[in-house]
Amino acid sequence: MTFTNYTANDSISNNEVCIIYEDKEGNIWFSSEDFGVYRYNGESFTNYNQEQGLGIRAVQTIFEDKKGRFWVGGGGGLYRYNGKSFFNVTKNGPWK
User: Fold this and answer.
1) How far apart are CA 70 and CA 54, in angstroms?
2) Of 1, 8, 56, 75, most Cβ neighbours within 10 A?
3) Quick one: CA torsion of 30, 35, 41, 45, rounded to 10 degrees?
4) How many CA atoms lie within 13 A of 5 on its CB side?
5) Cβ count within 10 A of residue 12
6) Contact, 21 vs 62, CB < 8 A?
7) CA distance 84 to 49
8) Quick one: which of 81, 96, 90, 77 has its CA closest to 21?
9) Hey, where are the domains in the chain?
């Protein structure tokens, strides 16, 4: 078995990962301390952070519900991914 260090290859920005999640499509999602979340599709990495509306840098949980919606949470609150960007889910805000 061979292991690849993607941090050493400059594919991800930090080597501290808190959560790893595989979605229904087989993509691997994981948090990277201070750098939001990454999605790995088997070929390349996509980083989602404050530029995409994710207001937490230390993601502690990732979940895909039955409708295929992604939920991301951490010390800074709960966020949902709409396929393009994240928005903060609040008590009185939109989340359906």
Assistant:
1) 12
2) 56
3) -150
4) 5
5) 18
6) yes
7) 12
8) 81
9) 20-89
Looking up tokens 């010390």 gives 75
Query: pLDDT (tens digit, 9 = 90+) per residue, 22-72?
Result: 999 999 999 887 788 989 999 888 999 899 999 887 899 999 999 999 999
Please state, in angstroms and rounded to a whole number, the distance separating the CA atoms of residues 62 and 21: 6
Q: Which amino acid type is present at position 48?
A: Y
Say which residue the tokens 């088997």 belong to.
Answer: 42
Give the N- to C-terminal CA distance of the chain in Å, as an integer: 43
The Cα–Cα gap between 89 and 2 comes to 40
Could you tell me the pTM of the whole model? 0.81
